[in-house]
Amino acid sequence: MHSAKEAAGRALTAAQKEQFVHQGLVKLENAFPQDVAAEARAILWRATGCDPEDTTTWTKPVIRLGDFPQEPFRMAVNTPLLHATFDELVGPGRWVPRQSLGGFPIRFPHRNDPGDTGWHIDASFPPDRPVEGSYFDWRVNVRSKGRALLMLFLFSDVGENDAPTRIRLGSHLSTAKLLAPAGEEGLSMMEISSAAASATKGMPVTTATGAAGTVFLCHPFLMHAAQPHRGVKPRFLAQPPLVPAAPLELARSDGSYSLVEKAILLGLDGKAIHLN
Questions:
Q1: Which of 3, 76, 144, 232 lies deepest, with the highest CB count within 10 Å?
Q2: Domains and CATH numbers, the chain
Q3: What are residue 37's phi and psi, to 5 degrees?
Q4: Does position 56 have pLDDT exceeding 60, yes or no?
């Protein structure tokens, strides 16, 4: 893994850009300050209703929390390093700044299976027609409507035993090819996750480990999965999307493709496509 230098406005190295396009992710160490992570953890602990000093209150393997707009979260997602990297990956002016961090699956050491460890791709937009169901009915299309990046923000130190997110390196390329025939309508989260899980089986796997303040910026088509917590301290992680300011384009007349778009085109064998 390559890690970014802790410096405002520092662009990604050539090796990191290559890694993002071909493997689907870049790891940024010290992407936000550890004291900010500590302030955020205190807020999250209160939201869980659990006592950090009393393990008997840790009664569930995972607690899911929603959006958090407090200052530590706004600070974490708006550092100069992250903004510069968003520009490198998505393109200047092509992403929407976040003012909060949402989607916190807090994982606890627990003997019970969490029941949510399947390989999947996060959905990006709701279906056109109302359906009976849930987030699993949301959709993904080849232009990744509604999502420019999948982001993993580590708010606690995460080692190999602390339920780090599993990631199939290079799986985003296979996903792009699977999504292309479905056009703008795309596929449901369940449909694409099932197809991509089969297509990417056996690909090399890495885990999202690191110190608090580490951020993994991932291609939105990257296959990933949770796992049970085998450590001793709960894992605090946010997994928000970076929202595009405009739809991704796969047939730019001026060739000014972002790295996210270049990765999709690589998955499509370098072919620009036009969608109706």
A1: 144
A2: 32-267 (2.60.120)
A3: -60, -40
A4: yes
